[in-house]
Amino acid sequence: MDWSIIQPLLFGAECDVVVFLDCCYAGQAARARASHNIEFLAATDKDQWTPIGKRSWPSFTRVLMDKMMEILIEDAVITIPGLHSRLVESKTGLARQPFYVALSGDNSAGTVQLRRWQDIRTMTEEKSQTVRQRSFGETTSIFLRLSTFRPIDAIGREALVKWMTRDSPSSIEDIELVEKAFAEAKLAKDLGAQIIQPNRLPGSLVPFLSNQGREEAMRLFHALEDTLSPPRAWQLTDSEAVNIIQNVKQKSGELITLMEDCLTSLNPRLLRDCGSRDIFELGDLRSRISMRLALLQDEVTHMRRRPDFDDRGHAHQRLRIGKEGKDRVLVEYWYYTYTNEEAFSKTEKQVAKISALHAESKSPGFRSLPGMGFLHETLHGRRFGFIYRFPDNRIGQSPHILSGLINQVKIVPLEIRKHLGSALCEAMLHLHSIGWLHKGIKSDNVVIFSQVGSSDSKESSAYATYDFQNPYLIGFDCSRPSDAETWSAVDFTIKDNIYRHPERWGMPKQFERHHDLYALVSLYLDLKDLELISKGSSPAGDRMLENTP
Length: 549
What we know:
Layout: H1 3-11, E1 17-21, E2 38-42, H2 60-75, E3 78-79, H3 80-87, E4 99-102, E5 113-114, H4 117-127, H5 154-166, H6 179-195, H7 211-227, H8 238-261, H9 268-275, H10 284-296, E6 308-309, E7 319-324, E8 327-335, H11 341-359, E9 371-377, E10 383-389, E11 399-401, H12 402-406, H13 414-433, E12 436-437, E13 446-449, E14 472-473, E15 480-481, H14 494-497, H15 513-526, H16 539-546
Parallel strand pairs: 1-2
Antiparallel strand pairs: 2-4, 3-5, 6-7, 7-8, 8-10, 9-10, 11-13, 12-15, 13-14
Helix pairs in contact: 6-8, 7-8, 9-10, 13-15
């Protein structure tokens, strides 16, 4: 905010003004005097800083809002000197003493009083001699336009709507936040013009699409353009407005999906140009572009960590639980046998790139745990460890490998097994959409967490003990970008080859997407071993799962 522009507007206003200023050296703004009533309440005096409220000291704004709510509950009216007297109490925890000054030229001007809008409305109605009786169906609407400094997600929008409507007059029946929907659609259209339309930047998507694909892309682009054209009438019924918004969301969503599916066809220059644009509102597309760029870069930052463990480590362990600072973490070990420096350097670079990918923010559809870096150990064998943070909704739960549960849990309903298989298929689709091949799809590389409140004993065999519907993929040690060099050793192990395409047995050929899909089908068939013997099962149900492609 440019205070030199804002301040004259406030001091030149023809009404009473209260200025709340939360910034360091805020007292410097209290210089002028005015003929009307202006009161100034700031976080600090002119020579002091104020904390932002992210560590031990609360922010001035947070304490200010809390004290205003207290006064409204107790007295129903706020005066600025009264508010200041509460803020200077030591129990508020503020690091700096708030600064108050009345800037009115006449000290007899009194103080500004703040009340709830609902209370003001009630007082106004009580003073009115006559209240016009509204006819049936007649309403009075208040339209509010809200601008935020940072983008907000769906949960934030819902909370904001509740906050705005909680204490509003009863005549305000609904507040619809449509600006975000149109902003996202405009961003999608601009990005689509850059990626899809011909005669744009070199490396656009058009040369990589078939004629049919090109026609579909242009159809989606023009359909979105049409939805963003101004409506013919400014006065719209509720249903008409809702239809317009839903249509905009649908068309922008279809175009965004097309661009997400085609990221691997874009050259690095165009990707970097797209990634540099302000497309935070596009959410998952933005994170996919960021992940794709992370895959293409040769050098990555090595995020080596050293978690603290409660247990004693031992050789051949696969998973280990520990702590990194305040975060509970899961470490997945990957063992290697070579000792020469060149092979180690190549492996460490691969581990660093995979860790960087896991650290990128991504949608839940990727079914991957949030990464925090990696470690290297030699005490219990030469091994790297991928470090994952426990998801917030998994704190206190234990991870289990799917292959172990297949031999342990024998009662899993068909619909749950299908949901598990579907989630893994979706994860593979997301990985391939950014050009990342897993190369190790099998039941040994799927983690299932125990359910909240369930008994975590190894003897438990009830399917309800485990959250089969929300699997997580691990085992990314051999994964790589789709256009990178294949790096595999000769392996004739039967237990591993059952997940490998026949082209990959023994001396392997270049790994391609369909090899991941072959392994995924083999894993899907593993789910047959989770015998369906629950109530209401039938042989036909098993055959349906067995024949599902």
